[in-house]
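Field reference: sequence -> structure
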Amino acid sequence: MLTPMRIVSKVGTIVGVLIVLAGLGVLGYGTFQIWQQYLAISADRSKEFINPLPTSLLGTLIIAVGAFLSGLSLYRGVGRADVQRPDGTTIVR
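Structure field:
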């Protein structure tokens, strides 16, 4: 059975992976803009200049946030031994 924290961990992992994929899409779009600018410049044609730097930085930021969320939710913590109380009960960690 899944405990509530494991459910939160799995949801966090899924959300983190989706954010990473969205960031890759934004970064890919920024790369496409840079490629279009290069083609226009190399062919001596005029094209409206679109600064691709904000799009590239936004994509990088989105990927960093998604990777952080994925790593945070995949972390399982430090394994600790169970504690035996003097009255015989066990505290499971």
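Note: The radius of gyration is 23 Å.
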